[in-house]
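INTERNAL AUDIT FORM
Audit reference: QA-55
Scope: verify that the stored structure record matches its stored sequence.
Auditor: D.O.
Record contents follow.
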Amino acid sequence: MTKIVKKSLSDRRLTAGRKRRLKKLSRRPDNEINTSDIPELTERFWQNAVRNPFYRPLKQQLTLRLDADVIAWLRRQGRGYQTRANALLRDAMLGDLNPKRRKDGGWDRPKNPRHNGIAQTRRAS
């Protein structure tokens, strides 16, 4: 029977000698570090860069009240309506956060006069 052992650098404690060497290295100016064996990353390198395909953001369960017609529209498109709703919200979020993706300066929230009325009525009661 074999035993699989997983080790990482964070499992090792830094000895006093290692700490001294790291402190000495951190005081060296960048121009003294030999980087001749490391290619410099240019804009051309980053043109084809993609996000890690195995990245999965952390999900959080919550209760969200949406209009019935919105839910019906999402469900009519088939399975995965929650995933589609998340994708729509993520696209709106990224568009709001990234000024280059914005077409007219930001995401326009719907101007529905009844929203204020509902909020005011609920606050009053």
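Auditor finding: record pair retrieved intact. The mean pLDDT is 79.
Action required: none
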